């Protein structure tokens, strides 16, 4: 089975239109000859040396990544630079690189749909509609089929998301009953106000900062669940792979390499979830 890189790019652009990307974003074909043949695709969250090595070991000739490798302008891609070494390895081994980032975030189905699916949320709608159509937009709001306490939802999230050293932490009353949940794959700090305005019971995302999270909870907003950035976006790779297998005559693999930068976690010895003084 094989196709051309141009055909693969067209299929990806159809699913995740480049026009849907944020103005500051850099999406699309990064490395590769459109006329080249593609037989095997590796789907990854990050194009880093480890996932490039995985692609080479697997015989992949196309990497589809979520995060852009070259977000900002560079003056050199020499092998003496971090990104230059990656570009060099890709070009030398005839491996193409394609990125679908914020255009995949807002797509339907997209990154947040896959995250919502891990929690079993139903009746999905965008947290922040984009205007392209009623289903497209940043984040998703959904409903748990069976309401459960925040403590149980946190445990569920930790169990169904890909394992990381970060795990899942939560802010709010552990006994608060959760029925409606907003999710946003990746850094969702800037959408705290949207989650509060939507009136959801909980908001699951990544990279929440201390002060915004503290103020949001104190202001009567939703309970917060903060997972590792990589773990909130990794579920999308399965949906991406399913689409590519159905659309292209290629073999598609999904990377499970944890590329989250945090590699260790230790709970404080005298931590009490209830925040009551310990004896």
UniProtKB/TrEMBL annotation:
Protein name, as recorded: GTP cyclohydrolase 1 type 2 homolog
Pfam families in alphabetical order: DUF34_NIF3
Residues binding a divalent metal cation, per UniProt: 66-67, 105, 229, 233
Family, similarity comment: Belongs to the GTP cyclohydrolase I type 2/NIF3 family.
GO CC terms in record: cytoplasm
GO terms of molecular function: metal ion binding
The organism of origin for this protein: Asanoa ishikariensis
Record text on subunit structure and interactions: Homohexamer.
Keywords assigned: Metal-binding
């Amino acid at each position: 089975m094989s196709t051309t890189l141009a055909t693969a790019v067209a299929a990806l652009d159809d699913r995740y239109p480049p026009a849907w990307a944020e103005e500051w974003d850099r999406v699309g074909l990064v490395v590769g000859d459109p006329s080249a043949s593609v037989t095997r695709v590796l789907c990854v969250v990050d194009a880093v040396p480890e996932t490039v090595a995985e692609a080479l070991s697997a015989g992949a000739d196309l990497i589809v990544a979520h995060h852009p490798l070259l977000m900002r302008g560079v003056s050199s891609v020499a092998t003496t630079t971090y990104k230059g070494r990656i570009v060099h390895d890709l070009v030398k081994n005839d491996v193409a690189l394609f990125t679908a980032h914020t255009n995949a975030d807002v797509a339907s189905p997209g990154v947040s749909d896959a995250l919502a699916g891990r929690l079993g949320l139903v009746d999905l709608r965008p947290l922040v509609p984009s205007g392209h159509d009623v289903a497209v937009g940043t984040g998703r709001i959904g409903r748990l089929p069976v309401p459960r306490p925040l403590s149980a939802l946190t445990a569920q999230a930790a169990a169904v998301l890909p394992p990381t050293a970060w795990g899942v932490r939560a802010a709010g009353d552990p006994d608060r009953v959760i029925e409606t949940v907003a999710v946003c794959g990746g850094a969702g700090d800037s959408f705290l106000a949207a989650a509060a305005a939507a009136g959801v019971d909980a908001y699951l995302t990544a990279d929440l900062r201390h002060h915004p999270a503290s103020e949001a909870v104190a202001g009567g907003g939703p309970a917060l669940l903060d997972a590792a950035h990589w773990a909130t976006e990794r579920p999308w790779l399965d949906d991406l792979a399913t689409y590519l297998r159905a659309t292209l005559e290629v073999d598609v693999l999904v990377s499970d390499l944890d590329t989250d930068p945090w590699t260790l976690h230790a709970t404080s010895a005298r931590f009490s979830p209830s925040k009551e003084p310990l004896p």
